[in-house]
Amino acid sequence: MTNIGRIIETPECVIEGADWLREACPRMAFAMDQTGPLPLRRRPDGFEQLLSAIVSQQVSVASANAIWKRMKEARLTGPRKIMWATDNDLRAAGLSRQKMRYARAMAEARIDFKALRIAADDEVIAVLTEVSGIGVWTAEIYAMFSLGRADVFAHGDLALQEAARVLYNLPDRPKEKEMRAIAEAWSPWRSVAARVLWAYYRVAKDREGIR
After folding, report:
1. Peptide bond just before 188 cis, omega within 30 deg
2. Considering the chain, what is the average pLDDT of its residues?
3. Residue 56 belongs to a domain with what CATH number?
4. Cβ-based neighbour number of residue 133 at 10 Å
5. Which domain holds residue 166?
6. Would you say 113 and 78 are in contact if contact means Cβ atoms under 8 Å apart?
7. Based on C-alpha coordinates, what's the Rg of the chain?
């Protein structure tokens, strides 16, 4: 079996990672003093979860929820149902032409979701991003929250970058390459560090606004 490192299953796992980060970095400790307890944010894994992520791309939370509700009511959340559905079926549920293409590409990809549970983090990202419509950010989020990987980080996430800028008093928001270098210091608990920064982003946004 591949060594996949720690899996975040319970709130106690998040607390363990948070305690480690407090010891490792005074700025992380400061951020957590501002944010309070961190969320678990575990989600199911599998086709339906990734399809939901595709539905949510580039629309508001309210719109995504409405579309997903229609898809569930129409029973369009499994790979075979997506393959059998007509354009009219998918359009009626609220999917754009591009998202129809992405949904069908994912259905046709026949991803082995059980195998991903024991695959290395890099392999999970590689397998998922081979599918049209699944970018690196979506794959990283899936690894973090659907697979519970403790040491994955969404380096291209703008909120994480901006939170890091404010927390570490950086002159500019770090781009993805720089964010990767910064996040190395949070290993083996980078997923918990992401939870810290997302929570701190909301605090910082209320305090000074986000540029």
Report:
1. yes
2. 93
3. 1.10.340.30
4. 20
5. 11-42+152-208
6. no
7. 18
